[in-house]
Specification:
This protein has 631 residues and is an all-alpha fold. The chain has 32 helices and two strands.
């Protein structure tokens, strides 16, 4: 018993300390709960005791804030002065004193205190940051800026606080000085180029009025005037043009850098790919032509010839109506390149595109099928490309009226790439095929699974088609109208637009007022665009917007309407592997182009459908047509 009693006495202090510690933590949590619940009298009383027992920064902060919330400025001032006396070098307590003066309408005294804090600032990086952060905590951004400028004056060139100042200028809305700080950093510290670009990329992504981009453009131009031969600034101009998707300006910069640095076309080639990927096909083609003419790298020249044909192909298939002569000429250029390069992995994608061109635009389905079947064998070592060739082959099978052969190929790719984008693409095309042939329930089941696809484009397309099916199956499970619409859609897929129009007209005549009417009108408008009849498309889109303003297609109709007036027609291109919304600039009829009507349609979209997916692009185009500076 005696030994146990001694052991108890030894453990008693430890037990007591643990209990006290647990109690302290509990009290801090309770005080925080009071504060968060806006019970400031209670939180002030509790943190007052805790601060007396343990003057930590945590207890100080919540005691001070609680006192300020209940307007107990006298006690708040005493707390701050006590802490300032304990930590005379910590700037935060001086600034807190000034903040209390501001809260008690003593702005002049506060300003004098702030001015003195900056004046007494020692030439130490840490102390500069501490004082600036203290000002920032109290939202005194201008004093924080002055602190960093004083620090720059004392510590430059070792410390210039450029990033800190650029960030503060941006927060303050002074984008000109923000841009100047970044360019000054670039000129004096080339090694931070990537860091600057990363920050600016985030900044420009939140620039709805284009003010930041315009400020950066101005600052870059001033820098070019100061240092016309500075390669780094030229690279920054190139990067900036790409951020704004001004690929024509970017190409000028890329060519200049290529000649100056003797890069043999590599930079221009990369820009060509970026231009094409963003839909700027003519700029991409110009980039590839430059490489073909100037590069001494034989491999790069061959690649450029391949990519040039792909760019020309993408541009032609997005020009309506399709020009048969230009397609035939493009086919000849394809054949010439294939004959010269031979059948090697570099030109396999070229062969796939040629097969598509021949099948869908020149009616040469037999040769296209033979080429793709050969490609499936040749690409065994490249499973991804082989899958893409199978999808193309399946598309042509569907075109020629062989849906069962097509579904077999789609299923093979789906099974082999179950959880990958190309597999999701295969499943979507299979579901679309089922829709075409009237198997709506099976199609909808597959589409509902694809709503969760990692590819946003596929998920959106799946959702749109699933809604089309769900909204147009009648209460008695009748699918007559939907089946008629699907037949018209299949005819359009098979390049039979006039027959598709006839089916749609019969559908609307037989079932006036049916929910599928707006879908039929939108499909007719798409056909009119492809036939090169934008005036008729305008009438149809206007009808959808007016008669079905509450429907899910009204914003699509208004956006397409605006784009036609804007000479940038937009439709969903079902033949494109991505089926992304495509923009076309092939309308040259002065009777169609109308800036005021385009602006009116964009504005109507913004007012009536603020939650539309097209809102951002519509606002950007509206401001551009109005003459605003937009990024």
């Amino acid at each position: 018993m005696k030994k146990l009693f001694i052991l108890f006495l030894l453990l008693l202090p430890v037990m007591f300390c643990r209990t006290a510690s647990a109690q302290a933590v509990t009290d801090e949590q309770l005080g925080l709960m009071y504060y968060n619940n806006k019970e400031f009298e209670k939180s002030a009383a509790l943190f007052d005791r805790l601060f007396s027992e343990k003057p930590t920064l945590f207890n100080y902060t919540y005691l001070l804030q609680s006192l300020l919330e209940i307007n107990d400025f006298d006690k708040a001032e005493k707390v701050v002065k006590r802490q300032a006396k304990r930590f005379p070098e910590d700037a935060r307590y001086v600034i807190d004193q000034g903040f209390i003066l501001l809260r008690t309408n003593q702005a002049q005294k506060a300003a004098k205190l702030f001015e003195q804090a900056i004046k007494d600032l020692p030439a130490e990086q840490r102390r500069v940051n501490e004082l600036a952060n203290a000002f920032l905590m109290r939202r005194e951004n201008e004093y924080a800026i002055r602190t960093y400028l004083k620090g720059r004056q004392m510590l430059s060139p070792q410390y210039t606080f450029g990033f800190e100042l650029a960030n503060l200028y941006e927060i303050s809305g002074n984008f000109e000085k923000m841009a100047d700080e970044y360019i000054m950093l670039l000129e004096t510290n080339p090694e931070v180029q990537n860091q600057i670009q990363g920050r600016l990329q985030n900044s420009l992504s939140n620039d709805p009025e284009g003010l930041k981009s315009e400020a950066l453009r101005t600052s870059l131009l001033k820098s070019v005037q100061r240092k016309p031969n500075d390669v780094l600034i030229s690279e920054m101009m190139l990067w900036f043009s790409i951020q704004l998707k001004d690929f024509e300006a970017a190409l000028i910069q890329a060519k200049a850098l290529d000649r100056r640095l003797d890069e043999n076309g590599n930079r221009v080639f990369a820009l060509g790919g970026l231009s094409v990927a963003n839909g700027y096909y003519s700029t991409g083609a110009e980039a590839y032509k430059y490489v073909i003419e100037r590069s001494q790298d034989a491999g790069l020249v061959v690649q450029s010839r391949v990519e040039l044909l792909k760019a020309e192909y993408e541009q032609l298939v997005r020009t309506f109506p399709v020009n048969a002569k230009e397609m035939a000429a493009l086919e000849q250029r394809y054949q010439q390149t294939l004959d010269e390069a031979g059948k090697n992995p570099l030109v396999f994608p070229l062969m796939r595109n040629l097969a598509h061109l021949q099948a869908f635009y020149l009616g040469k389905t037999t040769g296209a099928i033979a080429m793709l079947e050969e490609l499936v064998t040749l690409t065994q070592s490249n499973r991804q490309l082989q899958a893409e060739c199978k999808l193309e082959l399946a598309d042509i099978m569907l075109l020629t009226g062989e849906p069962w052969e097509a579904t077999l190929l789609y299923s093979q790719v789906d099974k082999a790439f179950k959880n990958e984008p190309v597999g999701h693409e295969a499943r979507f095309r299979n579901a679309r095929l089922s829709f075409y042939i009237g198997e709506f329930n099976w199609a909808r089941a597959q589409l509902d699974v694809l709503k969760a696809a990692t590819s946003k484009l596929i998920a959106n397309d799946a959702m749109a088609m699933s809604l089309l099916i769900s909204d147009n199956i009648d209460a008695d499970s009748s699918v007559v109208q939907l089946a008629t619409f699907a037949r018209a859609d299949l005819l359009l897929y098979r390049n039979k637009p006039d027959e598709a129009l006839a089916v749609l007209d019969s559908l609307m005549l037989a079932y006036p007022g049916h929910p599928i009417t707006d879908d039929a009108l939108m499909k007719k408008a798409e056909i009119m665009v492809k036939k090169g009849n934008p005036a008729e498309a305008i009438t149809l889109y206007r009808r959808v917007a007016d008669e079905f303003g509450d429907g899910i297609l009204a914003d699509d109709a208004l956006f397409n309407l605006a784009r036609i007036y804007d000479h940038q027609v937009v439709i969903a291109d079902n033949e494109d592997a991505d089926r992304a919304i495509q923009f076309f600039q092939n309308i040259n009829d002065p009777k169609i182009k109308d800036t005021s009507k385009a602006m009116a349609a964009y504005q109507e979209l913004l007012m009536k459908h603020p939650g539309s997916l097209y809102t951002v692009e519509a606002r950007k185009r509206f401001r551009g047509l109005r003459g605003d500076v937009v990024n």
